[in-house]
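Weekly puzzle thread! Below is a chain. First person to post its structure in token form gets bragging rights.
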Amino acid sequence: MVKGKYLLISTVIGMAVIHLTGYKNDSVEGVPQLSDTGRRLEDFVPEGWELLDSVALDFNEDGIPDYVGVLEAAPIDMGDYSMCPDYPRILFAIASDGTERYRLDFQDINLIRKRYDEGNNLPLTAEGLSFTTHAAGGKAWNWSEDYTYTYREGTWWLTLSEETSGYGEYVGEYITSYSKDDWERGVGIRQKRSSEFDDMEENWESEEYDVVYELSLDEPLTIEQAGKRCHRAPVRVTDWAVEVVTFAEDVELSEDMIKLPEEAEIRY
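Winning reply:
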């Protein structure tokens, strides 16, 4: 039983059809456009860059391993010391074309944290036609982010996202905020509880939350759209809008107590 009251907010996320123009990887100084084709994964690593992470999966289902990888600018030798450029990291995928070659499927500079960003990128994981990016950070207060992208009919879709924040020596020791967007089911879940230390001490072993509510999600985002909505994107698109707010029968709140996305700081 979750303590406190349930708050159910049924929210339709309206995703406008947009045409993304005027912003490509090569418009950011120092970030290269990757090769269109190559014979192996290393052929897609430009000069001056390093392969930071990679994972194999057969997303085009031709029986040959494909790859998703992350590139990072290599340190520059300055003589007495090395300088590490703070360029965006490049998330990319390559697919086999059946002729012992690979083609570039996509590259994105918004979805992976940079070298000096808060927190750390954890190793990529893959299962079936999906791969997941992972990141975590913090010391006393910790957070984590996991985003899953699935390949369908030639397009990558954001199909699952999970975020946590809380207190403790490691992520998950005492979670004060948990969010999950399951785009396959069209349901988002939000769970929150007090971050006051007195409340933590009293409920440290409890898995109950003060407030639990759900969001009704519209169509999933493509990986490009997800990148454009990321809070790290240099050019950020925020075209989401709340169409309906519905309260559960036992919740005593008025609409003027609700902050809509355009009225509050929100991470898409």
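Puzzle host: Confirmed. Bonus trivia for everyone else. Residues 1-26 have pLDDT under 50 and may be disordered.
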